[in-house]
Every structure is written in C-alpha cells, then in structure tokens.
UniProtKB/TrEMBL annotation:
Membrane protein topology class: Multi-pass membrane protein
Native source organism of the sequence: Triticum urartu (Red wild einkorn)
PANTHER family: MULTIDRUG RESISTANCE PROTEIN
Higher taxonomy: Eukaryota, Viridiplantae, Streptophyta, Embryophyta, Tracheophyta
Subcellular location field: Membrane
Protein name as annotated: MATE efflux family protein DTX1
Amino acid sequence: MEEPLVGGKSEKTGGPGESLLVIEVKKQLYLAGPLVVGSLLQNVVQMISVMFVGHLGELDLSSASITTSFAGVTGFSLLILLFFGQDPEIAMGAGSYIHWMIPALFVYGPLQCHVRFLQTQNIVLPVMLSSGVTALNHILVCWLLVYKLGLGNKGAALANTISYLTNLLILALYIRLSPSYKRTWTGLSMEAFRDILSFLRLAVPSALMVCTRVSNELGAGRLDAARLATHVIMVLGLVSSVSVGLAIILVRNLWGYAYSNEKEVVEYIARMMPILAVTFLFDDLQCVLSGIVRGCGFQKIGAYVNLSAYYLVGIPAALYFAFVYHLGGMETSEKCRHELLGAVVRINLRTCRADSVAPVHHPANQLGQRSFEGKGQGFQFFPTFRLGNMRHTRQDAQFSREISQGDVHGDKEPTRNWLLKWCFTGMCNSSQKHLEIGDSLW
C-alpha cells in the first residue's frame, strides 16, 4: 500500500458516526491551533522588544512602535519619516532602531523558509514549540541587552536578531536530525533552481497569502471537501475574531501598562482598543479569504486585490481619516480594505463548487509535469495545492489529464476560464456560457 510522501501527521480524522462537518472542524482546529499559537509566539518577539523599550520613555516607545510598524510592511526598508512631517526626535529614534534591526532581516528570511517547509506538510507542532522557546528566551535577551548592558532601544532591536536566529537554529536542527524528513529533505542541490521562473510566478503573488486545507483537498481531487473546508474556516475565522475582539475590550484599561508607565499613554491605548477590536473582524476575514484564493490557484487575483486594498484604498483612507477628519491614529481603513475584498468571497464560493475544480493551466502544473523520485516512488509536485496527502497513482494522473482537457463533470473548458469571465465581465448565468480567456493573463 502506497504511503503519502508528505503530510498527514498533524491531521486528525473523525471517528465512526461523525458527520463530515464535525470531522472538518476537528481537522481545522487540530491544524490551526498550533499554527495560531506558533504565529503569535513568532510575532510576540517584536512586541516584547517594544514593551521593554516603552518603559524607557515616551520617545523611545514612539520610535520603536513606528519602526516596527514600517518594518512589518516594507521589509525593514529605509524610513523617510522627516519627509512625511514626523517629529524629528521620533524620526531620529526610529532611524537608530531600524539600523539595529537590519541584521534580523537576513535571519527572518531563512526562518520563514523552514516554517513553510514544515507547514506545507501539515507539521505544525515543532513550529509552535520552537517559537515558544524563542519567546521565553527573548524576554531574558531583552532584559540583558536593554537594562543590564545599557544598550536601550538599540539592545531591544538587536534582541530580535538573536531570537530569530535561535528559532532558526532550533528548526534547522529538528529538520536535520528527525528521521521523518529523510524523504522530503535530501540536502541542498542545484536542482532547486530548475524552472525557477515558473516557481517565482507562483511565489511572488502568493507572498501575500497563506493556505493549507483548501489547497490540499483540491490537490487530491476532493472538491466537496474543499467546499466544506471553505465554509468551516469562514465560520471559525468569524468566531476567532469576535473572541479576540471581546478579549481586548475587556483588558483595554490594563493593556497599556505593558508598554508604558505614562498615564496619558495608557488612557489613549484604552480609547483605541475598541476600534482595534472592530478591525480584528475584518482582518481575520481578509486572511481567510486570501488563503482560500491561494488554495484555489488564483495567486495573481489575490495579489492584485490585496495590493489594491492595502495601498490604493487602505493607506489613502488612513491619511484621510487621520489628517482631514483629525482622528489621529483612530482610523478605520480596515473597513475600507474589507469592502474591496468582498469580491474575493464570490471567487471562493464559485471556485469550490461541487461540480467545479481548481485551475489547471497554471505555472504550478508546468512544474508538475516532472516526476521527482524518492525511495523508488515517483510523485507529482503541485506547489499550488501544497501536496497535503496526495498520492501519485494512475487515477490521479488520469484525473489531472481530464482536468487539463476541461472534461470533468461535463465542463468543456477549465473552470478557471469560466470563473475569470464571471469575475471580470459579470455576464455569468445559469446556462454557463463559456468565454475563452487566454492563459496569457496568468
């Protein structure tokens, strides 16, 4: 009996008598739980640094906060805060902080590669544990550099690099020493650069999105399961955002003391928290929808929508609310961004129809034309579908050929072309008239 090449270890299945809905909820909770905790622990590293810096003074808190925000969306790029009218002292403090954060960029990239290598195989517990160890160690490192060695905000920035490096070393050793990865990691090879342009056509648009469950089910040809996964994750995302929103509202009067001892700062944070709670609702849904779009293979559509929502709607809305309405930091650009992402919902629901299938004329399938050999067993590699529990069998190969020829469930052309017509022309109807849209769009 054939064994899946990757994945499956962190995925629970239901017992006898359980409905498909209950089974799917269990799968997603078992997979998402460690992912959420691991992601939180990875992000808490910079949060802890800002907390330590905040107790040095208001100026240090302001410079560290604005640096962390800009670094998160620009990849630690050059700050030009004076040009935008920022206070000179804050700008100078932010510039100093960002200089000491530059080394973290060179460690953060390889760290994310290791994290994604494990996540694509549904292996999430090691990431959570390594992130937990790193977060605990980061508190000690921050205390040592900020207070003991007297480096101030520079020490907090440098602590990020040390903690990211710690996390990277833990995951690298785990992958290297664990016997379960001998089939999926055989060491460095120049073969990794074959068809690199095709891979980049997937990777660059996908950089803004994350997905596992939907892509796994589509890759295995389980269309009903993919549709069910979409519905379940939408509900779970809504429940999660509401829970987090209520939690931060309840602690709004206490949370500010973690960052500063200044009463004015604490009071302002308390006023901001209810607005932040509302943005969590839209932000969670945006993350879920982006993941679904990526899992369905619409990387470019997702990238265009995300970039437009953030930079063409979100940032102008933030400037308008902050400087025209004089709301300061209390802006609601998340709502504007979410409105633009409403179109993505329709793409998700249509893509995951029970009588449809994910796109096939895609760079992923150009990569998938080759078979990679491992332990004498070949398998097809579809990056778009993340290869959850996919097995290379004659039935899979035949199914892929049928998809590429557009002859699955009566469809006369690949479903993606039909979807693009529906999305961009608005002329889709029940007769499902087809309009040929060239693959050059992708």
